[in-house]
């Protein structure tokens, strides 16, 4: 698991929680069950990940669909880190467009 991605996602989670401590965030921490993220906060999380990593469209629906099939603890930080890592490694998002921001050439 990429520790850099983990650290960056952990900082995003803390920021979205308005800087309040979330306790000890681990790979096994459920974003929904343990951190209390609802659907609106998951949208905020998606937008923050796209901005942080320069991903044009993070495949949140694919991640959600995969996690819905998991028995036990779902929507974990570790699974989100893996999904983000795969997206960055392939250089593609769920719609096949390139990953990364385009530079504004004004």
| Shape verdict | globular
Number of strands: 0
The name of the CATH architecture is: Orthogonal Bundle
CATH fold category name = Non-ribosomal Peptide Synthetase Peptidyl Carrier Protein, Chain A
Mean residue pLDDT = 82
Structural class: mainly alpha
**Element order, helices and strands?**
HHHH
Poorly predicted runs of 5 or more residues: 93-106
Into how many domains do the coordinates divide? Answer: 1
* The CATH superfamily title: ACP-like
User: In percent, how helical is the residue content?
Assistant: 40-55%
The CATH first-level class comes to Mainly Alpha
Residues in β-strands, percent: under 5%
Main sheet properties: none
How many helices?
4
Task: Give a brief description.
The protein is an all-alpha fold and 106 residues long. Helices cover 49% and strands 0% of the residues.
Keywords:
106 residues
Structure explained in plain terms:
This protein is mainly α and 106 residues long. It has a single domain (3-90), classed as ACP-like (Non-ribosomal Peptide Synthetase Peptidyl Carrier Protein, Chain A), CATH 1.10.1200. It has helices at residues 3-16, 39-53, 60-68, 77-90. The radius of gyration is 14 Å and the shape is globular. The chain starts with a helix and ends in a 16-residue tail after the last helix.
């Amino acid at each position: 698991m990429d520790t850099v991605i983990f650290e960056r996602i952990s900082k995003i989670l803390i920021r979205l929680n308005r800087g309040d401590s979330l306790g000890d965030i681990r790979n096994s921490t459920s974003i929904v069950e343990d951190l209390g993220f609802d659907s609106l906060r998951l949208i905020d999380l998606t937008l923050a990940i796209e901005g942080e990593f320069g991903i044009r469209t993070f495949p949140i629906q694919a991640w959600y669909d995969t996690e819905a099939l998991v028995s036990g603890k779902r929507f974990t930080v570790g699974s989100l880190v893996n999904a983000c890592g795969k997206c960055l490694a392939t250089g593609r998002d769920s719609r096949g467009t390139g990953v990364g921001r385009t530079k504004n050439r004004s």
